[in-house]
Amino acid sequence: MDPLDLTFLVVVFLVAGLVKGLLGLGLPLIAMGLMSLRLPPAEAAALVVVPSLVTNIWQMVVGPHLRMLIGRLTPMIAGIALGTWIGALVIGTAAHKAGGAASALVGLLLALYALYGLVGLPLPNPVRVPWRLTWGLGSGLLTGLLTAATGVFTLPTVPYLQSLRLERDALIQALGLAFTVSTLALAALLRGSGHLNGDLGLGAGIALAAALSGTAAGGIVRRHIPPARFRRGFFLFLLVLGVVLVFQTALKSGWI
């Protein structure tokens, strides 16, 4: 790995970890969006797996709500696993099947999620059990399909979990649980395609160290920045990143 790539890798995961520490989410979203500027989506996703898994497991186990959340979110968890498997069969990994379209889709997802966050429209709360099962399974399936195509698993998981009106600490744990399942499903997909292998050891280790450092710093900074101001800046950053990624891919692919 040359010095420029190494510096880029460290900066990307420091920034992604900082966002993770501040908001409890955003590491794979930020890392995939930035890494896709230099790497094919499948290679970028392979580097994201280890930092994402470690930070999400920590987020998942810290707190008293895990048992309740596993029971309540079982349909979504099953949907994520099934959706990723179906996505692997139907569309394959991003590098093999989607090509430039996968990078554009990552950018589009970033922009859509940013607009959702900026507008702040809440989804209806699926109070009744049948609706909860349907919404949970459907959200998981779509998340799994998008994970297989792009390596990004924030949508529609985050809006769905926010719609459940969970208490703040329970929501943070729920995000950790959902992202852990998504990361494991993505790891299995990348392992099967040969993108997740021992050659990534150095890069993954550096990415993990940078992500953990950023996450720790984010936890400190969180106490000094008004949450509303940071969230707005975060979503504006994602919107710009998404638009840049779409146009960069379109130019490289000759679409425009």
UniProtKB/TrEMBL annotation:
InterPro entries reported in the protein's UniProt record: TM_pro_TauE-like (IPR002781), TSUP (IPR052017)
Location of the protein in the cell: Cell membrane
Keyword field contains Transmembrane helix: yes
Membrane-related topology note: Multi-pass membrane protein
Sorted UniProt keywords: Cell membrane, Membrane, Transmembrane, Transmembrane helix, Transport
GO cellular component, one term: plasma membrane
Family: Belongs to the 4-toluene sulfonate uptake permease (TSUP) (TC 2.A.102) family.
Protein name: Probable membrane transporter protein
